[in-house]
Structure formats: structure tokens, C-alpha cells
Amino acid sequence: MLVPRKSYTRYVMLSAVISWSVATGISFSHGAQPTFFADSERSWSDGTSVILAEVEEVKQIDGRRYGAVLLPRGTLSGTFDCGQHAELSVTFHASDIYASISKPPKARDYVLAIIRPVNDRWVVPIDRSGIMPGKGWAMAVVSGPDDPVIIQTLKSIQAARIKGKAAIDDEKKKAD
Predict the structure, then answer these.
(1) Domain contains 21
(2) How many CB atoms lie within 10 A of CB 56?
(3) How far apart are CA 92 and CA 104, in angstroms?
(4) Domain that holds residue 59
(5) How far is the C-alpha of 15 from the C-alpha of 31, rounded, in Å?
(6) What confidence tens digit (pLDDT) does each residue in 93-139 have?
(7) Each residue of 66-103: b (16+ CB within 10 Å) or e?
(8) List of residues 6+ apart from 121 with CB closer than 8 A
(9) Total tally of structural domains belonging to the chain
């Protein structure tokens, strides 16, 4: 079967972007479509975790890319061991589109974050997820360790991992 030249060029470009995305651990989402699916065990098999952390420091690296030092306070899901990591350096993107969060957190903020190990470092992916509060960014600022959003996020994670994706929607409806 012959593929028209334009279609082939788009295919090659898309393949290159996907390969780059896989190699760097950066994924893309369109609008508010979820790209991290908590109901899939495969989503957690690479060491991905959801943590509660206090932000110690945030620095802009370039453009919309930031580095932060987080002080982990608890793991909601995944294999990340807060007892072995008093500090955690992460990178993330802050922007209105293709980002981990819309605006970077400030020092002393508390955050819920999806973290993923990539090439011996930790990143907050450019993902949206039904388990995360608000618009589903992979990083969300919360008021502190006693913020009710934390328990709601944990319930969404449990619903997804135990009952499946349909249960996430039910949990979010109950919260509203």
C-alpha cells in the first residue's frame, strides 16, 4: 500500500516525537485529557508514585522548566520510600499547556505530586490524571498535611487501583 507523502512525513515526525518522549520520560497531553491512568498496573510498574511533600526550594532552569527540592512527607501510592529520602530533587514544567502544574509552587508550599524515576533522576511528568485534584495536573499545591484534598486523592487512587477507572468518576462526583 502506498502512503501519500504528506501522511508519511507526519508519521515519521510523530514517530520521532514519541521516541523522544519515551527516551526522556516526558509525555504530552492535549488539553485536559488524562494521560496517566491509575487503574493500569503498568502505570505504576516503573517506580511512579504519588507523594505529599513540602517544597524547600524552586528554581527556574529555563523557559517553563523548573527544578525543585522537595521534602517528602508521605507516599499515597507507589513504591517511593519517604524514609529513605529526606530530600528529593525533581524537575517539572509550569505552564498553561503541556505542563506538570500551571504555576510553580513556592518554598514552604505543600504539594501532591506524581513522581517518576527517569534516567537516575526524578521528574514530575507532563501528565493529567483523573486521580489528581482540580484540573488533574501531575502536581497540585495543597494547604498542608491535613488538607481534605489529600484524603480525596487517596480515595481516587484506591478507587482506580481497586475498582477501575469508572470508580474514579464516582469518587469525584461524591466530592463535588
Answers:
(1) no
(2) 15
(3) 9
(4) 32-175
(5) 21
(6) 999 888 999 999 999 999 999 999 999 999 999 878 888 998 889 99
(7) bebbbebeebbbbebebeebeebebbbbbeeeebbbee
(8) 89, 90, 91
(9) 1
